[in-house]
Write a structure and sequence with these properties.
This protein is α/β, with parallel strands linked by helices. The chain has helices spanning 13-23, 36-44, 49-64, 78-88, 98-107, 120-123, 142-147, 151-162, 182-189, 196-207, and strands at 2-7, 28-33, 69-72, 93-94, 110-115, 133-138, 170-173, 192-194.
Amino acid sequence: MRITLIHALKHSIVPIEASFARHWPEARLMNLLDDSLSADLARDGKLSERMTERFLAMGQYAASTGADGILFTCSAFGPCIEAVARTHAPMPVLKPNEAMIEQAVAKGKRIGLLSTFPPTLVSMPPEFPSEVTLVPKLAEGALAALDGGDRAEHDRIVVEASKDLRDCDLIALAQYSMAPAAARVAEVTGREVLTTPDSAVLKLKAMLGVK
């Protein structure tokens, strides 16, 4: 099976490849990276028709290479990804968070949503069903630290921010790049922590009927 991974942040590549190595090492991975997507969204403050066109172009390119499925790892672009999914149905096209959201809703009613990218806290909450209470929290400065090559400072900021979510049933980490900090977040909060990469790989594998 050939799976195309489409990224808006270079930091997402290592965590998702690690999840595939754990859960589906036989998959053949193809990485597409456009890190101007996240910069342009941060600049514009909202998703535009032009942004959707860019996602459709990436989806078309992925399909043209013979992809069996597409997984987007960029969590702030839900409507753009939905447009790609409609265009290429029935090929599985996954939003980065949808599998984790399904898990989170099954496990708790009060969910802490921890993010390092501000637009995610605008785009992602509507993806959760209305019957859950979402507690959003921004780990301010963490992504800048990661962009500067300081993974330790990124993780420290994420862990510190997570302390404000200790009254939640569980904590969902919104960015793929946050996954390496999950164990420390669980340790300091005493809460179960869900990450997006593992959930996404397992869902995609099931959708493609791979045992």
